[in-house]
Each structure stands twice: as structure tokens, then as C-alpha cells.
Amino acid sequence: MFIEMFQLLFTVVSIEAVLILTLGFGTPVRRVVVKLLDLLKRGRGPLVTKTVAVTMLVLFGSVLFSTIQINRRVSESGGVANPTDQVMFANRLLEAFLMGTVLFLAMVIDRMHYYTRELQITRRNLEVAVKKTKTAA
Fold first, then answer.
1. Considering its fold, how many domains does the chain have in total?
2. Contacts of 29 (CB under 8 A, 6+ apart)
3. Which residues of 60-95 are buried (b: 16+ CB within 10 A; e: fewer)?
4. What is the pLDDT of residues 20-53, one digit of tens each?
5. What is the pLDDT of residues 75-109, one digit of tens each?
6. Distance, CA of 116 to CA of 34 (rounded, Å)
7. Which residues have a Cβ under 8 Å from the Cβ of 99 and sit 6 or more positions away?
8. Rounded distance, CA 7 to CA 13, Å?
9. Residue 2 confidence (pLDDT) above 70
10. What are the residues whose beta carbons fall under 8 Å from the beta carbon of 103, sequence distance 6 or more?
11. Could you list the residue range(s) of the whole structural domain that residue 13 is in?
């Protein structure tokens, strides 16, 4: 169970990292990614995205709570953890880190998409203004 979830989370983190790199550099692929993100933000896309994000946030909180419980149990038993608690703690910690990273990178992608769109709109408006001033002069 843990292996499949970790593979999924690592895959999502990798895809998000590629999207961030694509949005960060002015390549022809960036226009395609921006248009795909525009399509995603239309219709029911924001509702689905927010639902998934809230679900992951609840899971993130649950994993953190479980990690804190394991840590509390270890500290109550004299600071010595048995091997089962150590493995469970490590798995929960990795799971929490990956979920937090997924949520953070999703927020970064959203902001980069917003600023990329604003930059494109500002450039278009600037070009129109420059053309108007050239034809008026």
C-alpha cells in the first residue's frame, strides 16, 4: 500500500516540477502549458482542483497527527522506539513531506500561471499602445 502511494506522490511531484520549469522558461512549450492550464481553470476545473486539494490537506493533517502520536508514544515509553514504530514513523514522515510538497508545488504552479498570463496581457496592451502612438505621431 505504501509503495504505490509513494510512487504516485513522487510521480505527481515530478510532473509538477516539470510544469514549474516549463512555466519558468520562455520556450514554445510554455504557451501550450499555459493554454492547458487556462482550459483546466474553466468550467468545473476549479471545483475539482479545490476538492482534490482539500482532500489532500485533510490527509496531510491526518498523517501529521499520526506522526505526532507515534512520537508521543515513543517519548512516553522512555525515548526508545521499537522497530515497528520506527518504520511507521519514517513512512508517515515521508508521506507527510510528499503531500506537503505536492500542495506547495500546486500553489506555485497556480501563481506562476497567473503571473505568466498577466505578463502576456501586459505585453499585448503595451504593443497596442506603442502602435497607437506610432500611428498618431
1. 1
2. 22
3. beebbebbeebeeebeeeeeebeeeeeebbebbbbb
4. 999 999 889 998 999 999 888 888 888 888 898 8
5. 888 878 888 888 988 999 999 999 999 999 999 99
6. 8
7. 9, 56, 59, 60, 63
8. 10
9. no
10. 53, 56, 57, 60
11. 1-136
